[in-house]
Amino acid sequence: MNSLGFDKPEGSTRVVVAMSGGVDSSTVAAMLHAEGYEVIGITLQLYDHGVAVGKKGACCAGQDIHDARRVAESLGIPHYVLNYESRFKQSVMDDFVDTYLAGSTPIPCVRCNQSVKFHDLLKTARELGADCMATGHYVQRVLGADGRAQLHRGADPDKDQSYFLFATTQEQLDYLRFPLGALDKAQTRALAQQYGLAVADKPDSQDICFVPTGGYAEVIKKLRPDAIRPGEIRHVDGRLMGAHTGIIHYTVGQRKGLGGGSAEPLYVVRLDAEKNQVIVGPKEALNRARFAIAEVNWLDGAFRAPVTDIRVKMRSMQAPMEARLLPTGADAAEVELLTPYAGIAPGQACVVYDGARVLGGGWISPRQAA
Per-residue pLDDT tens for 131-169? Predict the structure, then answer.
C-alpha cells in the first residue's frame, strides 16, 4: 500500500489537490509530488472582489489564486482554476445573508465544504480520473475495523478543523485524504520551507474569505440593502431597553453594543427575527441544557436512539462537553447537556464526538427543545 492507501505505485496514483493559495494546501501538493504521485492542483474562484469587503479575501480569489498558480508552476504540476462564483453565491453567500436576517449566526466555511468543495470539486476530481482528492485540513482520516474511513480530530488541538467538517458524508470521506492531520502548523511551515514554496511564510487567514475585514454587516448591506430594519432591544422580563439598527449586528452571548439603561451587565439572550427584537438579560439567562439541532449528518449511517456517552462542541474552539443525543426525526435531534452551557447560538453547529472520532453533527435550531 502507498501512503494514500492504494495498492499500486505512487506514479500510477492520480490525486487532485484542492489548492486555496495558502501554505497548508500548497504543502500538501508539494508533499505528494515529492512522494512521486501524479498531482493535479485545482483552485476554485469563488467570489468577486466587488462583493467582498476589504482589499483581498482569505482564499479563492485574487492574490490567492495567483499564489496557488505560482506554487503549481514551481512544482511542475498541472493547475486549473474553476470559476464557481455563481454556485458559491447561491449556496454560501446567500445562505450567509439569509441566516443572519433570520436571527441566527451562520458558519459559511461549513456550507462551502458541504456544497462546493466536497461536492462540486470532488465531482470534478472524479471526472479527471483521480483516485482521491487531498486537502490541507488539519483532521485525520482513520480506517475503522470495518475498513470504512472515519473522521478524527487533528493531532494539533490548536489547529484541529474537525468541527468544520461534520457535514462530510461517508462517500466523500472514503475519497478524501488529509495529509496534514498528524502535523502541527510549525511542522507544516518547516516542510514548506524545505520544499522552497513561495508561500511558506504567508500568514494564516483569520476571517471568512469574502469578509476579510470582519465587516460582515457591510456584505449583507451590499447583497440585501433593504432587508436591515431598526427595532427594539427588550429585556427578557419585557422591559424596553433601547433600540437597535438591525439584528444582523447581534449574536447570542454578545455583551457589547447593547446601550445603557441598566445597572446589571446584559447579554444577548436571543434574537426574535419575526418581531425584529433583540432580547437581552443577565448572564445566567444564557444557560441552556437542552436544544434542538436540524439537518443532522451521521457519518456511519442512521444514528442510534438515544446516543449516550458522547461529547459535543457548539463552538470550534470550545472544549467538548458530555451530552446525550435524542433523535426526533430522520435528520433532527435534541441535545441534552450534562452541564448547562451559556451562549448556544442558533445557526452554529453542534458537532458530536466519540473520543477523537467525529460521529456527525447538526445545525443548532432557533426552536427551543422541549
Answer: 999 999 999 999 998 889 999 999 999 999 999 999 999
pLDDT, tens digit, for every residue of 86-131? 888 888 889 999 999 999 988 988 988 888 888 889 999 999 999 9
Q: Shortest CA distance to 136 belongs to which of 115, 159, 116? A: 159
Per-residue pLDDT reduced to its tens digit, 225-262: 888 899 999 999 999 999 999 999 899 999 887 866 66
Residue 166 CA: distances (Å) to CA of 30, 161, 212, 289: 27, 10, 24, 22
Residue 72 in this model has a pLDDT that exceeds 60: yes
Domain with 184 in it: 10-136+179-194
* Contact in structure between 103 and 146 (CB atoms under 8 Å): no
Instruction: Collapse the DSSP code of 84 into the 3-class scheme (helix H, G, I; strand E, B; otherwise coil) and give the result.
Output: coil
Residue finishing a domain among 281, 308, 343: 281
* Cross-strand partners of 268: 280
**Catalytic residue positions, numbered:** 112, 209
Which residues, 6+ apart, have CB-to-CB distance to 145 below 8 Å? none
Q: What beta strand segments (E) does 211-274 contain?
A: 231-235, 240-244, 267-272
Is residue 169 one of the residues assigned to a domain?
Answer: no
pTM, full prediction? 0.90
Residue 241 CA to residue 233 CA, distance in Å, equals: 5
Q: Which three cell numbers stand for residue 169?
A: 458524508
- The 277-281 sheet, strands edge to edge: 240-244, 231-235, 277-281, 267-272
Alpha-carbon torsion (362, 166, 53, 158), positive or negative: positive
Tell me: do 57 and 113 sit in the same domain: yes
Number of domains in the chain: 3
Domain check: are 291 and 342 in the same one?
A: yes
**Same domain, residue pair 190 and 69:** yes
